[in-house]
Structure of Pathogen-related protein:
Amino acid sequence: MKSVEETNPTPIEQETVMLPDYMTDPNAVLKDVDAKWRYNQPPDYSKTRKYYSETKSKNHAAGSLPHLVENLVKNWEIEASFKTQLSDWRTVDFSQYSFAINDGEPVSAEHMLRVGTYNAIIQPGRRRRSSYYDPTAMDFGASHKTFKRMMPTFAWEVLEVYTEPPVVAFKWRHWGEFKGEYSAVNGAGENVRVAPHNGLIDITGVTVAYLNEKMQVTKLKTWFDSDEMFRQMDPDGQAVRIPMTGCPIAGDGNESVATGPVK
């Protein structure tokens, strides 16, 4: 599939002055000081942005379609993760918005707001995935704590854009360094722990974004192998499973001894 060439500007690229700020500035929605934020203030993305600038694989020209799409998705991620009131989301038309992974059942903005972005993306089902993580056992706060502790900076970039608005198909990359212990609940109700290897976790996927006339997202459909993160996280199968008799996230001390590596 041929990508949109950055050297041949499209109409949307030629009219950047008329575009919403969330397409021209990756941090636009962080300036929404009057929004309802999860921790009562906008989050700090400075370390992630620095890591992105130092390790990205693409240098999209300012105003190019890949650059605009990348900014839109980055602002969408901020809103979906940290804005607690749907009416404050500027990047999506929440009256129409739906989100689907790997041809799964679409979920609403309300669902994503309730369970969190990680739980909306990592769906239960496949054997490997469920042996490391169960989104139904991890609430919004626990899921974000797990992955933020594991990868303090988890950068994202657009690799290629294949089609132009209003239906934008693009390939992306999501990457970070595994620096903190991974600890989560799996499908068997066990606490799974993986020691950090300090190496790179690098995931790619494809998304199709449907946009309205305001360049707001009305529908997102994403395809990627979420098992790939766990394969890279634990390539030698050294994770341990700890049967829990209490709450594994709260750490109430009711853990039994580890039973060995997850296979």
Observations:
- DSSP finds nine helices and nine strands in the chain.
- The mean pLDDT is 88.
- Residues 11-243 form a domain with the Nuclear Transport Factor 2; Chain: A, fold (CATH 3.10.450.50).
